Amino acid sequence: MSTNAIARRYAAALFEIASERQMVDLVDRELKQVVDLIAQTPDLKRALEHQLVSPAKKQELVNSYFSGKVSQLTLNFLNVLATKRREGFVAQIYEEYLGFANRSRGIVEVEVRSAAGISEANLKSLEGALARRLAKKIVMKSRTDPSLIGGVIVRVGDQLLDGSVRTRLLRLKERLSRPNVSK
């Protein structure tokens, strides 16, 4: 099973329980807090990801770091991850959980990649147009990718709109390399 499938499965289960208990936002904040603390504490990260550390010891670590700081639901979830040796997936699980939570909130994440930086005005314009078209709240993430040569790539959920020069050049190369069938 792929890493994404594992993360999605655990995130879906946690989201379902959090939804039933009306704790979606709380669990979202707590998982973010957990991911941040693990990233900022190299010893904790090493211990949780080390294969020779027993699940029982990992549960002790989880409880010592997070008991009283997160809800019982989140603490129990972290202990299940430790028991099943899935604690190394917590950051990916959080990303998947955030996707489920955002969909339930009517929020769509949009990733915009461009060869050069996009002005704040153009990002706001794109955000407004997408919000009107999708009738949802948009959360924009923008990054620069010089390999695109020019243009932009916009990812809305599973949909990809590729207007990059790199892709246009690759398509042109494919067309030019095909033998001319008609005479």
Provide a descriptive summary of the structure in words.
This protein is α+β, with helices and mostly antiparallel strands and 183 residues long. Helix content is 61%, strand content 15%. It has eight helices and four strands. A four-stranded mixed β-sheet has the order 2-1-3-4. A hairpin with a 2-residue loop joins strand 3 (151-156) and strand 4. Helix 1 packs across helix 6 and helix 2 (24-40) packs antiparallel against helix 6 (90-105). The mean pLDDT is 90.
Largest sheet geometry = 4 strands, mixed
Q: Given the C-alpha coordinates, what overall shape results?
A: elongated
How big a fraction of the residues is strand? 15-25%
What is the average per-residue confidence, as pLDDT, rounded to a whole number?
90
Q: How many beta strands in the DSSP annotation?
A: 4
Spatially, the strands of the biggest sheet line up as 2-1-3-4
Count of helix runs = 8
Rg over C-alpha atoms, rounded to the nearest angstrom:
21 Å
Distance between the termini: 50 Å
Q: Name the structural class.
A: alpha+beta
Low-confidence sequence ranges: none
Q: What is the helix fraction of residues, given as a range?
A: 55-70%
What sequence of helices (H) and strands (E) makes up the elements?
HHHHHHEHEEEH
